[in-house]
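Me: I hope this is not a bother. Any chance you could explain this protein sequence and its structure tokens? It all follows right here:
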Amino acid sequence: MKVFIAGGTSGIGAALANLYLAKGYLVAICGRDLQKTVIENGNLTKYEVDVLNVEMLQLYVLDFVQQEPLDLFINTTGSYADDVARKIRYNESIDMLQINILGTINCFEIARKVMRKHNQGHIVTIASVSGTLHYPKASLYSKSKRAVIQIADAYRKALEPFGITVTTIAPGYVDTQKLRDLNQQNLSKKPYLVSQEEAAIYIADAIVKKKELYVFPWKMKVLMKFLSYFPARFLDIMMYKKAKWMKND
């Protein structure tokens, strides 16, 4: 089985790479900086590429699969900037939108072209639980991840007749180094936190079961469902106060 993981050099992507390597699968990972990864395995192929560089990304995917089928493509890339508790710079906004939206589309386009040759395969993209909750003043990050969910829905409908499955993963808080760096190494205010390894197990199980949209952990899923019943004005105020509290303002 061949698995390509965009963003597999660290975080959830690296945990998934380790999980699939332990199963004996052939795994390829890519990222902006290969120095981030500490994974060494004879079944692992590494590529240094940005998901915004669609030509090079496609070249590397083709190099990995050769003439064989690509069984699984997982896009774990993402960018975060907080525009709820503070103002964000223009460059931060553009970087986040490009990676979260254009990067997602690039991954879908490359994966679907490769998989259409054999009319089989499974494409997985990582969104966020924040993208499942809709209200007018949601953060730009949340809106971009909601867009990811919608993009995946569109590709699912388009690719289903060709034997290609699409799964969207919407995780809650995962204990990654990136999350720690964004929170001064203090994750005490992050509810229902799960480890990278736990997240990988949840995601792999959802892939096996061919889930369309999978939210984890279950407590976060229940919380988001509960919040969805509140008026938008209430959510605007509450989520702003939550963001300020998490930033210790």
About this structure: The chain is about 45% helix and 15% strand. Helices lie at 11-22, 54-65, 90-116, 140-159, 177-182, 196-208, 218-227, 232-246. The first strand starts at residue 2 and ends at 6. The mean pLDDT is 92.
